[in-house]
Amino acid sequence: MSDQGPRDVSLKHVEVDAARGMLQSGSHRYLDVRAILDLRAPEVFATGNVAGSRNVPYYIPGSDKVKNTNFEQEVLSNFDKEEGIIVGCGTGTRSVLAAADLLAAGFTNVYNMAGGYRAIKNKQTDNK
Question: Which PANTHER family does UniProt cross-reference here (predicted)?
Answer without folding.
Answer: PROTEIN HIGH ARSENIC CONTENT 1, MITOCHONDRIAL-RELATED (PTHR44542:SF14), THIOSULFATE SULFURTRANSFERASE 18 (PTHR44542)
